[in-house]
Amino acid sequence: MEKTQELAVEVLTRLGALKRGHFRLTSGLHSDCYMQCAVLFEHPKESERLCRALAEGFAGQRIDLVASPAVGGVIMGYEMARALSVRNVFAEREDGRMTFRRGFHVEPGERALVVEDVVTTGGSVREVVELLRGAGAEVVGVGSVVDRSGGRVDFGVPFHALMTMEASAWREEECPLCRKGEPIVKPGSRQLKK
Q1: pTM, rounded to two decimals
Q2: Signal sequence span per UniProt (predicted)?
Q3: Alpha carbon distance 80, 103 (integer Å)
Q4: Residue numbering of the annotated binding site
């Protein structure tokens, strides 16, 4: 089996999902890297390859279904369910809370794997875990393509990520890249000027 961290870095970098440089994030913070994991799912062969590698981390576990939070985890959830040959559902926000809609249901006693493309704080994943438990399912694990927490997130179940990273982020006045005069980019837009 290919080493997952190296595999994920290579694929995500080659596809342009993982970028290094000087970025202004949506939060306003500055960072030396930017991750747009959705780019991976533009490429079916590569997303299948990475999701199959992640599924191997759960080999030997009985899993009845894969559940994910919308929007980021929807395509990944499908790919993971396909790799594991199990049913797939996703949760959506309704009135500020995660819920199963569109006729999705979970049976008491079903064993569920929760997946998300990128985990930073784990908030959406925790909501899906609680939703599943509230329906009587047993959550057997969590999987992600990227763990941006640097391994600090704990879901109380086994958590496997293909790639673990800890992205540095600074307020503009503390940014070492600004002090060096490096041009800043806001992802999704043209280059910004200081």
Answers
A1: 0.86
A2: none
A3: 20
A4: 116-124, 148
Residues 7-52: pLDDT tens digits?
999 999 999 999 889 998 877 889 898 888 999 999 999 999 999 9
Positions at the binding site for orotate: 120, 148
- Asked whether the beta carbons of 55 and 84 are under 8 A apart, the reply is yes
Total residues found in the chain within this entry: 194
Nearest to 178 by CA among 29, 2, 39, 18: 29
β-bridge mates for residue 91, sequence order:
69, 100
C-alpha closest to that of 61 among 142, 116, 130? 142
Indicate the angle between helix axes 44-56 and 74-84, nearest 10 degrees: 60
Binding residues for 5-phospho-alpha-D-ribose 1-diphosphate: 116-124
Which residue is listed with tokens 């995500």? 12
97 vs 166 pLDDT, higher one: 97
Token pair in block for residue 105: 């249901």
DSSP states of 127-184 as a string? Answer: HHHHHHHHTT-EEEEEEEEEETBSS----SS-EEEEEE-B--EE-GGG-HHHHTT--E
